[in-house]
Specification:
single chain; alpha+beta
């Protein structure tokens, strides 16, 4: 488990590129608004969807996909909320728990439910007092991201950015 994590971090570091100046400014504004410590944000060819990684030195990875300013703001708010709420540490503890409870048939179910609850809590934090229009755009963004993830993962595996064993499509 640890060796896979280290290999993933090395691969994403190798495939990452900095944001554009405009995206970097927007990320800085969102970070200031959430009043957290600085979290590096990068584009990464090896990821199919936005994600926060790293327990001790978190960073946010964005796929090479065009986002509008509003979409990027919503994505960054969601991922920064994971960092601020220490969800990354919680997920690492869940992974360790799964290693310890490999024999327990209920643990994978419990882990999925807890990870889903983390995602829903971040969605709720992002949308807190948002208008109906913003909520609608956020839902559309989630659906577009899910659809884009399947396409990007398959194309990255074909292009060699990811090993073919990394391609999984869940329904």
């Amino acid at each position: 488990l640890l060796s896979r994590h280290i290999a993933f971090r090395r691969t994403t570091a190798r495939l990452s590129t900095p944001l554009t100046e405009e995206e970097e400014n927007l990320a800085g504004c969102v970070l200031e608004e959430l009043s957290g410590k600085p979290v590096p944000v990068q584009r990464c060819r090896g990821v199919s969807g936005p994600m926060a990684i790293g327990v001790f030195r978190p960073r946010i990875l964005l796929p090479h996909r065009a986002y509008t300013a509003e979409e990027l703001s919503l994505v960054l708010r969601h991922e920064l909320t994971h960092c601020r709420r220490h969800d990354l540490l919680f997920q690492a503890l869940l992974a360790a728990g799964r290693c310890l409870h490999w024999f327990n048939p209920l643990f994978p179910l419990i882990q999925r439910m807890m990870e889903r609850d983390c995602e829903l809590a971040c969605d709720e934090a992002v949308l807190g007092q948002a208008s109906a229009d913003t909520r609608s755009r956020y839902c559309r963004l989630l659906l577009d991201t899910a659809a884009w993830q399947v396409t990007a993962t398959v194309s990255d595996a074909v292009d060699g950015a990811l090993p073919k064993s990394a391609v999984t499509v869940s329904y």
